[in-house]
Structure formats: structure tokens, C-alpha cells
Specification:
The protein is an alpha+beta fold. The protein is built from 16 helices and 22 strands.
Length: 427
């Protein structure tokens, strides 16, 4: 019998008490009443949306600052607070949690696109237990059900008050934390090694791209706007940069994913990492067709992860869509590979403390190296093979990383599933 089994047998043999969040604490919003100017030369640290989204345990060593005067009545974060993202393009990604698991040494504020939950009694829920619990499949399912929206989905704090969570004895919580943290550490070490290898492969193909270009005998340099046509006229972009646009029917996130069908031949071109298909019959008048490269209009993760190339029939969400204005000069797949090498620069063009949007003028004025069209095709052929080797989800390193994550999720969900203590069994 394991130590955890012994503790459960000793401390909660008949089951674990479940309580609603409304019984356990209260929800609070982030900072309010701030303009863009307040985030320039700030005097107080704040937690960004990205920090919450990407980390199960909140990173406290941050440099992001906002102006907060002494007279302002803004709530600060504390040890044990459970923070949630407020919105996403799909209900499945709403209410992503991150927990403050270390003592907060200085005043720390929360961005306005997130909110947090604070326990009335901080002695009954271990923050390290909470960081695993609120990302478990059961809790994620419950949180997802509280989301509603059209363009974007937003979670309801009122609805979240009704979410039930298990509250096992602290000794049981600590043992589960010990097991999951050890597993997470081992998985993280392996994933870090695999990710480093994958990054090295990525750098390799960037190297080969630049080398292939530099070895070309004739290279011209052009501004991106000279060679591409986009899906809309952008604000603050001069007319000469966009004499024409090519519009595509655009669906809201909720409508896009409601189209999903198995064995479809029409790609659902989402703005996030999701991938799906639908049929021509279901898509109807929303179908577009062509060879396109996309970046999301609003993003919450690195653009390299959500930049897409597609050729064929598709239905699109709120992407910014580019295509070559002359395929005799610019190959669309070459454009995609080149934009991938520029992803770090493009990331910096996105602004906002919550959902970030790009400065498209900066994107359009990027300078692209352009070998002959035949050379572009040769480069694409080489990089297609290299890309398949590096990134095919069904094999290689990404699959191994995903397998490790699924393994952790399996054991996490198993350990965080408890028999509920019935009312008549409570002592």
C-alpha cells in the first residue's frame, strides 16, 4: 500500500468533502481605469495575461509595470490566490488558471483581462495542490461550461461560484503534490531536453533557409507590402502600401468550431493552435479557396505556434491573411517559411496587456530576401522535407513531448478524482 493510499484510508476512508467555490471564497477583478499611457514608465509590477496562461505556478519575478498612485483603491495579489484568464477564442481555453505558490514580497497587481479567486480560509487548500487541481480535466470541464460569447468567449465569475472542488485533508493534498511535482519535474527535464533539440532543429532549418538564400546568385530585397495582398485595409497603413485587398468570409470563433465534422475536406483556419475540418455542405457560403499564409489578429501565445500555411478550400476565423500578388515573383510556401524565420520580430509587433494585436504597418514594411522563383521552389522543396522531419506531430520529438504531457495529465486526473463524502457520513 502506498503512502497516499494509507493516508486516504486513515483520514478520509468514506470519501472527500466537496464544496463550491462560492462557499470557499470570493472572486476579484484585476486593475481598472487604466489607459495605454499608464503602462509606460510604471511604478508598480503587474501580472500579464501571458504569465497566467503559460504557467501553472505564477512567475513572480516580473518586469512589467503600471502606474499606480497612492490614492488608488486597487487590489493586490497574495500568496494562495488562484488567477484565471478571462477570455479566449474557444470555451475550452477560457479560465486557464495559475496559482501564487510563493510568498509575495512586494505589491503585485493583476492585468484587467484576468481575475482571481481568494480563499476565505487559506489553511484548507494548499496552493501547490490548487495549481494541479484547477488544471485537471474535471475542473477545466466545469470552467468551460461557464463560458459564453460570440467573438470571444468569456467566463462568468457568478457561474464559477457554483463549481465544486474536492477538499481532502491537507496531509492528502501534500502527498499528491509530492507525487505530481516529482512527476512534473522529471517530465519537465525530459521535455526541456526534447524542446532544446527541437529548437536546435528549428534553428537548423532557419540556418538552411538563410544559407540557401545567400548561396543564390541573384537576390533582390523588397518590402513585404510590395509582394503581398492582404485580407483587409489596415489602420495607419498608407494607401500606396495596400492598393488592393482580397476579402474572405470570416466567422466568429463559436461559429467556426460549430462547423467541425469528421472526414471533411474543408480546413477550419482558426486563429489558435486548434486544427479541424468540415464538409463543403456544412460550410456552405463560408468557403474560401486559395493558397494563403496567416497570422492571428488577436493572440495569446507566440506567433510561430499559430502561424499557418494552407492551400485548398478553407473557412477562416479572425486571421490576417496574406497571399502573393504575383506567384511568378513570390512563392506562397516560400513566404510562409520566410515569415517563420521572422516570427520573433513579428511577435514584438503585437501590443496589449491582454489579447494582443499586431501593428500591421510594421509587418508590411518587413524586408524580404527574394531569390528567383525557381530557386524559391527549390528552397521550399528542401524545407518541406526538413519541416516534416522536425515537426510531424505523429512522430519524432513533438510527439514525445506530447506523450509526456498526456502521461502527467492521466496521473493528475486519477489522483485528483475522489469519492465524494455523503452528508450522512460526515462526522
Amino acid at each position: 500500500m502506498s503512502k497516499l493510499e494509507e493516508l486516504i484510508k486513515q483520514l478520509c476512508p468514506n470519501g472527500v468533502e466537496y464544496k463550491t467555490l462560492g462557499e470557499l471564497g470570493k472572486f476579484y477583478g484585476g486593475i481598472t481605469g487604466k489607459s495605454k499611457e499608464d503602462f509606460k514608465d510604471g511604478n508598480a509590477k503587474f501580472i500579464t495575461y501571458k504569465n497566467v496562461y503559460e504557467n501553472i505556478s505564477l512567475k513572480l519575478d516580473v518586469e512589467d509595470k503600471v502606474k499606480i498612485s497612492e490614492k488608488e483603491n486597487q487590489r493586490t495579489l497574495e500568496y494562495g490566490d488562484i488567477i484565471f484568464t478571462g477570455s479566449s477564442e474557444t470555451p475550452d481555453e477560457c479560465g486557464i488558471s495559475s496559482v501564487i505558490t510563493k510568498k509575495v514580497e512586494e505589491k503585485l497587481y493583476l492585468n484587467s483581462f484576468c481575475f482571481f479567486f481568494r480563499m476565505n480560509n487559506k489553511e484548507i487548500l494548499n496552493p501547490d495542490f490548487a495549481k494541479h487541481l484547477f488544471r485537471s480535466s474535471n475542473l477545466r470541464y466545469q470552467i468551460g461550461k461557464t463560458a459564453s460569447g460570440v467573438t470571444r468567449f468569456n467566463v462568468s465569475k457568478k457561474a464559477m461560484e457554483k463549481i465544486c472542488i474536492p477538499v481532502p485533508p491537507l496531509e492528502v493534498q501534500c502527498e499528491i503534490v509530492h507525487i505530481l511535482d516529482d512527476f512534473t519535474l522529471l517530465s519537465a527535464l525530459l521535455s526541456a531536453e526534447l524542446s532544446a533539440e527541437l529548437k536546435a532543429r528549428q534553428k537548423q532549418y532557419e540556418y538552411y533557409l538563410y544559407k540557401l538564400i545567400s548561396d543564390s546568385k541573384k537576390i533582390t530585397k523588397n518590402k513585404l507590402y510590395e509582394l503581398t495582398i492582404w485580407d483587409k485595409k489596415f489602420n495607419a497603413v498608407e494607401n500606396y502600401m495596400q492598393p488592393n485587398v482580397k476579402k474572405y468570409p470570416t466567422l466568429l470563433a463559436v461559429d467556426l468550431f460549430n462547423l467541425e465534422r469528421k472526414n471533411g475536406n474543408v480546413f477550419l483556419l482558426s486563429t489558435g493552435g486548434q486544427r479541424g475540418w468540415t464538409t463543403e455542405e456544412v460550410a456552405g457560403d463560408n468557403i474560401s479557396e486559395g493558397e494563403v499564409v496567416t497570422i492571428p489578429w488577436g493572440k495569446s501565445r507566440p506567433v510561430q505556434e499559430v502561424m499557418k500555411y494552407y492551400c485548398g478550400k478553407f473557412v477562416t476565423g479572425d486571421n490576417r491573411i496574406a497571399t502573393s500578388n504575383d506567384i511568378k515573383k513570390l512563392n506562397n510556401k516560400y513566404l510562409f517559411y520566410w515569415m517563420q524565420t521572422q516570427s520573433e520580430r513579428i511577435d514584438k509587433f503585437y501590443r496589449g496587456s491582454g489579447i494582443q494585436h499586431p501593428n500591421m504597418r510594421n509587418v508590411l514594411t518587413l524586408e524580404i530576401e527574394l531569390p528567383s522563383i525557381d530557386e524559391q521552389k527549390r528552397i521550399v522543396s528542401i524545407l518541406d522535407k526538413f519541416e516534416k522531419l522536425c515537426n510531424d506531430i505523429s512522430k519524432g520529438l513533438p510527439a514525445e513531448i506530447e506523450a509526456r504531457q498526456k502521461q502527467y495529465e492521466y496521473y493528475r486526473d486519477k489522483l485528483l478524482t475522489f469519492k465524494e463524502l455523503k452528508v450522512n457520513e460526515k462526522i
